[in-house]
Amino acid sequence: MLVTYEGIVIARREVGDNSCFIDILTDEQGIVEAAAHGAKKLNSSILSSAGLFSYSIFCLNKTGLRYTVNSAKPKYSFHALGSDIEKLALASYFAQAMRYCTPSEQNQLEHGADSPVRFLAAALYEIMSAEQTGRTLSGIKSAFELRYSAMLGFSPDLVACENCGNYDCENGMIFLPDKALLLCADCFNPEYGGERTALLPDTLSAMRQIIFSPADRFFKFRITGNAEKQLSAVCESYFLSRAERCFPALNYYNTLVRNRREI
């Protein structure tokens, strides 16, 4: 049986001299593992489509629970990510996160959910074009982590103070990641022993935009300085606590960032 899915290759495993297995992120079936026979031959019609981060329309031959790539038509190329090691590491982190968190053989668009394929494509595009847009990799990473947490059903309540309903507070707003909510400083109990972060105004503004903006707007914010550092720490910690694991590509990316700052 032939089936057609639009998707992005988020993992690849080499098999022999000419073939490989690829994991394709799709909206209709989650993660699909498919054999790509002859994909490494220079004259292969699926050479470019079987590459990591390839965004293509795949025609797959399904036999039982096994898939084989019959043909593929490239839709967009993210090949330029490979020219920058930091960008490649960040893109690999996004791919590893989505591979781990996305089930196989399960429709990802139920109940009006955002398209995971378009979400990842937008994230990869933002990484690739960061110099042109003026957005930082740190900001892109934070937007991915917080928005993806929301897509997975772990959206924090950032509308207002959970207790009094104030949207803002002169004395500041405090984020409680374990409870996924906000409290204003006036309502916060100083004896609370859990994790908490007193958010800078720019940090909270960025978090609200990431969560509440339409799919084509949540990456489009500007943040710098201490607010950018705080946003990065809060979003990374929040996502990893929900995923309940870390990712090798994230560790490598953070190492690259630390080394760059020390130079």
Report on this structure.
The protein is α+β, with helices and mostly antiparallel strands. It contains 7 helices and 9 strands; from the N terminus they run βββββααααββββααα. Helix 5 crosses helix 6. The longest helix is centred in the last third of the chain and has 19 residues, at 225-243. The model has no long low-confidence stretch (mean pLDDT 92).
Helix content: 25-40%
Strand order of the largest sheet: 1-2-3-5-4
The percent range for strand residues is: 15-25%
Largest sheet, in brief, is: 5 strands, mixed, barrel
From the N-terminal CA to the C-terminal CA, the straight-line distance is: 55 Å
Structural class based on helices, strands and sheet pairing: alpha+beta
Query: Averaged pLDDT, please?
Result: 92
The SSE string, one letter per element, is EEEEEHHHHEEEEHHH
CATH architecture label name of the largest domain = Up-down Bundle
Radius of gyration: 20 Å
Can you count the helices? 7
Brief sketch in words of this structure:
By secondary structure, the protein is an alpha+beta fold. The chain has helices at 85-101, 116-128, 130-133, 137-151, 201-212, 225-243, 248-262; strands spanning 2-15, 19-26, 30-36, 55-63, 66-76, 157-161, 173-176, 181-184, 197-199.
